[in-house]
Amino acid sequence: MFDLDAIDRNILRSLSADGRISNIDLAGKVGLSPSACLRRVQELERKGVISGYRAVINPAALGIGFVAYITVGLSRHRKEDQRAFEEAIAKAPEVRECHNITGTVEYLLRVEARDLAAYKYFHTEVLGTVPEVASITSYIVMESLKDERA
Question: Whole-model pTM?
């Protein structure tokens, strides 16, 4: 945990909303001189509070029209089974997020595909062939009302 003051939090909020904001504009928003603002941003980067900058890409522009969240249960709860599953998932470009979670299953995935047919192929021919997988439950995204991932 980092000790952040109100100015640091304002900087982070502004950068979260617009990672391409110029230092001069950012400094004006948070009430600092440009040099002081730049020092703060660099310090936040050095400490790992800011871990990177990303472009937010419209999935439809890439031909992605289908998003699903999938819970995956493993057949055994051994470290080597987790490792094997994670290695298989790392190779699947359809999987945009993979989270190891607690509860009745081990993993939560966010999968993007061109359409239902492409998702079915991933479900059956990719995820369905991983030997460690015991259960798959799909939750199809119909609409995203709020998505603040960058």
Answer: 0.81
Q: What is the CATH number of domain 59-140?
A: 3.30.70.920
Phi, psi of 6 (to 5 degrees): -60, -35
Write the CB contacts of 67 (distance below 8 Å, at least 6 apart in sequence).
59, 110, 111, 112, 113, 140, 141, 144
User: CATH assignment of 6-46?
Assistant: 1.10.10.10
Domain ranges (residues) in the chain: 6-46, 59-140
Under DSSP, is residue 85 helix (H, G, I), strand (E, B) or coil? helix
Residues in the chain: 150
Task: For residue 103, give the 3-state DSSP assignment.
Answer: coil
Render pLDDT for 53-65 as a digit per residue (tens, 0 to 9): 988 888 889 999 9
Query: Is the Cβ–Cβ distance between 141 and 69 less than 8 Å?
Result: yes
Residue 108 makes CB contacts below 8 A (sequence gap 6+) with 69, 70, 71, 72, 97, 98, 99, 101
